[in-house]
Amino acid sequence: MLYSPANSLRFLQKAAGLSTDCVVMDLEETIVPEGKDAARANVTKAIAQYNYGYREVIVRVNRLGSQWVEADLAAVAKARPGAVLFPRIESAREVLDCIAGLDRAGGDSLPVMVMIETPFGVLHAEQIAGASDRIACLVMGTADLTNHLHARPHPERLPLLMSLSLVILAARAHNRSVVDGIQSNLKDMHTFEYSCRLGRDMGLDGKTLVHPDQLIYCNEAYTPKPADIAQAKEVILAFEQATREGRGNVVVNGRLIEQMHVVAARRVVSLAEAIRAMEAA
């Protein structure tokens, strides 16, 4: 998920040709107060004029209670993006208030995504994830969260591991997608690549990015490899054969395979097929 500051129409146009699954048009932190009106106009124009193909277009609005959020929601409801991203959510009540504001603006059919970026947000993640079926995704705001924790950036992300795990648990409990936060150090690609792989292995569905140069590393980490796909298909076929023979498990390459492993294998195959379909679009 690539953040694209809405103060530049050129950035929004460029994002339509990049290898990102989601373009997050940003009206919040990257836009100075005097540029908010122009940014909203850019979002409206970009969604209307540019072809984003398979890329999901998301608009991050300003925080609930800010002086800009009502105008943001009015513009977004008219522009009809794929989803609306609400920042700094800390409770289920805030989720419902955000959705109510979006509905009043005319966006009652739009999915929402919510950012978890404070200690209260993490501690209330389960309530937030279950607040509404309109929630499509939880998005980690790890940069702000690190600051709130009085932590320091760590190459192995040690200060964030518990928070990430808690939000992943909340997302999975309510069948929501969950996406990792950004890395703002644009030069340290070694740490960024590790961050992508760690997030993938923890169970995150993807990562938010702030620069196109990060796309190749993120896509490489989260895209199933040919060997992974082949192994997943082998697991599925072997288990199906075992089921036909009346057995509830099977050994594949020295590993005991049960139903839960087949579910995971089918997820790998489905992800690979979805990626191929998007690349062909």
- Distance between termini? 18 Å
Structural class given helices, strands, pairing?
A: alpha/beta
How many extended strands? 10
Residues in β-strands, percent? 5-15%
Q: What is the 3D form?
A: globular
Spatial order of strands in the largest sheet? 1-2-3-4-5-6-7-8
Radius of gyration: 20 Å
- Average of pLDDT: 96
Report the sheet with the most strands, covering strand number, pairing sense and barrel closure: 8 strands, parallel
Please report the number of helical segments. 12
Order of secondary-structure elements = EHEHEHEHEHHEHHEHEHHEEH
Low-confidence stretches: none
In short, what is this structure?
This protein has helices spanning 9-15, 36-49, 69-79, 92-104, 119-123, 125-129, 142-148, 161-173, 189-202, 215-222, 226-244, 259-280, and strands at 2-5, 22-26, 56-60, 83-86, 112-116, 135-140, 177-180, 206-207, 250-252, 255-257.
